[in-house]
Write a structure and sequence with these properties.
By secondary structure, this protein is of the alpha+beta class. It folds into two domains: about 80 residues, Helix Hairpins; about 220 residues, Sandwich (Immunoglobulin-like). The strands form three sheets. The chain has a five-stranded mixed sheet. A hairpin with a 6-residue loop joins strand 6 and strand 7. Helix 2 runs antiparallel to helix 3 and helix 5 packs across helix 8. It is elongated. Its main location: membrane. Keywords: Copper, Electron transport, Heme, Iron, Membrane, Metal-binding, Oxidoreductase, Respiratory chain, Translocase, Transmembrane, Transmembrane helix, Transport. This is Cytochrome c oxidase subunit 2. One of its GO terms (biological process) is ATP synthesis coupled electron transport.
Length: about 350
């Protein structure tokens, strides 16, 4: 008895913890509160599938209840054999046809939605962004505007934005659940989708394909702003001068160290397409470091001193000379001065 009581208590505790954890998460990292066209139509299909499953469950339970009540064994009928329905063609046709009909009801809108979200008929008239997945960060190339940025994608509200998605190394998966569904990022081909956000704000994205030890840390953001703010952001990004002098002597020292330690060989400032690491043009406008940590002076110094401790398996580790704390501090001060636009995630709200 005591053994069973222990198991019951464990199940109750597990249920309570599951209920509490079900409420954890970020406001704009959920597929259940759609704020974009792709997420909205996906939600409609989810609701349709849930309705079908509930209807099937209710009907099966009704039939089951009727069967166990009406046809239960009665006293005096221990050897009674009920009427057999084996080989009844009508019944076999019915319970074969019903699943087929249900699959068709679910498959037709699903197929239409898949083709709809991949339709690029008006791509030439819309914003086009080349999205490249890397271990463990995302790069965004605004081909028409000749802008390069990483980790934070800026788009205007209520506008179709076409994404050409590929990978620079292994298979990744681009997913912003509140705005749209998933799309694989493959190293050998480009997949196209479009996104359209209904509300301004900051929406979190994830890599949805296991891609290495820091897969769970491969986060990014889509910053949705008004058309006017987007136009201003584009102008700000275009006018960036990579050679601009920092405002303080310490930041200038950091800039010199940044160049002397070959950081500029991997990280572009401006619109250089040749960089192999994240673009740092608007680095200080971001609110997170490496996608997951708060962008603070202390966290940035720690990252420069030991990036492996934050993101295991990242390609930055070991690819530059070891820095002293003073050197890392100077470089951090320089990087935190790269705030070339007043349009940022905090100004967009919902951060």
């Amino acid at each position: 008895m005591n053994r069973w009581m222990g198991k019951i208590k464990a199940l109750i505790l597990l249920g309570f913890v599951s209920l509490v954890l079900a409420a954890c998460g970020k406001e704009n990292l959920t597929a259940l509160d759609p704020k974009g066209y792709g997420a909205e139509v996906s939600m409609d299909i989810m609701i349709l599938s849930i309705i079908i499953m509930i209807a099937v469950f209710v009907i099966v339970m009704l039939v089951y209840t009727v069967a166990i009540i009406r046809f239960r064994r009665k006293k005096g009928q221990e050897n009674y054999i009920p009427k057999q329905v084996e080989g009844n063609h009508k019944l076999e046709i019915v319970w074969t046809a019903i699943p087929i009909v249900l699959v068709i009801i679910l498959a037709v809108p699903t197929i239409f939605t898949v083709f709809d979200l991949a339709d690029d008929a008006d791509a030439s008239e819309s914003i086009s962004i080349d999205v490249t997945g890397n271990q463990y960060w995302w790069h965004f190339n605004y081909s028409n505007e000749e802008i390069q940025t990483s980790q934070d994608m800026y788009i205007p509200v209520n506008e179709k934005v076409y994404l050409n998605i590929d990978s620079a190394d292994v298979i990744h998966s681009f997913w912003v659940p509140t705005i749209s569904g998933k799309m694989d990022a493959n190293p050998e081909n480009t997949n196209t989708m479009y996104i359209e956000a209904y509300e301004e704000g900051v929406y979190w994205g994830k890599c949805a394909e296991l891609c290495g030890p820091s897969h769970s840390l491969m986060d990014f953001k889509i910053v949705v702003v008004s058309q006017e703010e987007y136009d201003q952001w584009v102008e700000d990004m275009k006018s960036v001068d990579p050679e601009a002098e920092p405002e303080t002597a310490s930041a200038q020292e950091g800039k010199d160290l940044f160049e002397a330690n070959s950081c500029i060989g991997c990280h572009a400032i401006g619109s250089s397409p040749s960089a192999v690491g994240p673009n740092l043009t608007n680095f200080a406008n971001r609110t997170t470091l490496a996608g997951v940590e708060d962008l603070t002076y202390e966290n940035l110094v720690d990252w420069l001193m030991n990036p492996e401790a934050l993101k295991p398996g990242n390609k930055m580790t070991g690819n530059y000379p070891e820095l002293s704390e003073d050197e890392a501090s100077s470089i951090a001060e320089y990087l935190l001065g790269l705030d070339h636009s007043e349009i940022n995630p905090e100004s967009a709200g919902n951060e």
